[in-house]
Design brief:
The chain is about 20% helix and about 30% strand. The chain is of the alpha+beta class. It has two domains: about 10-35 and about 150-170, no CATH class; about 40-145, Sandwich (Immunoglobulin-like), CATH 2.60.40.420. The chain has a five-stranded mixed sheet with strand order 3-9-8-5-6, with no helix packed on it. It is rod-shaped. Residues about 145-155 have low confidence and may be disordered.
């Protein structure tokens, strides 16, 4: 049997009805999700009157804020005008001590030292200069909420899209009930 010119099978017509829904679902699912950011802060060791305190030891930054899951990169500087060796140390480990991965050391006038690590959970974490912590050379890292929303496995969006399209086609090609 020959089909007339311009004939479109019913299954195709039904599938086209579901196309807008499939496209809308794909747009929602495949929208780019925010990735974890890298927050970079430069922290300088200060001595003397620059601190404005009685001890003469401080950092120029006393608070660092970022979202849970983000990476923190600290560039630590100890200016040549300083007399002492200083370090930047963060208590972010499970046992709240300064691990080597969370530590930067610099002698006066040394090139900046840097340290980078990820902070997966919300909370407040101390940072300090180990030998001068008791005299006020400290600060806090404040990790808030979640970074960039929900994390998914790679390929999750594409798999969900494929399931949606197959579901729409299945519904469209089912035989109508009498």
């Amino acid at each position: 049997m020959r089909r007339p010119k311009g004939f479109v099978p019913r299954a195709v017509c039904r599938a086209v009805r579901f196309l807008p829904a499939a496209v809308l679902l794909a747009a929602c699912v495949l929208a780019p999700s925010a990735e974890a950011a890298t927050v970079e802060r430069t922290v300088r060791a200060l001595e003397g009157e620059a601190c404005g305190n009685a001890t003469g030891y401080c950092f120029d930054v006393t608070e660092i804020r970022l979202a849970a899951g983000d990476r923190l990169r600290v560039v630590f500087e100890n200016p040549a005008a300083n007399a002492d060796v200083h370090n930047w140390c963060a208590d972010v480990g499970l046992d709240h001590h300064c691990a080597p991965a969370h530590h930067a050391l610099a002698r006066p006038g040394d090139p900046p030292a840097s340290v980078e690590f990820r902070l997966p959970v919300a909370g407040a974490f101390d940072f300090y200069c180990d030998p001068h912590r008791a005299v006020g050379m400290n600060g806090v890292i404040v990790v808030e909420g979640a970074s960039g929303g929900e994390r998914r496995q790679p390929g999750f969006e594409l798999s969900l899209f494929a399931v949606a399209v197959l579901g729409a086609l299945t519904l469209a090609t089912r035989a109508p009930r009498a």
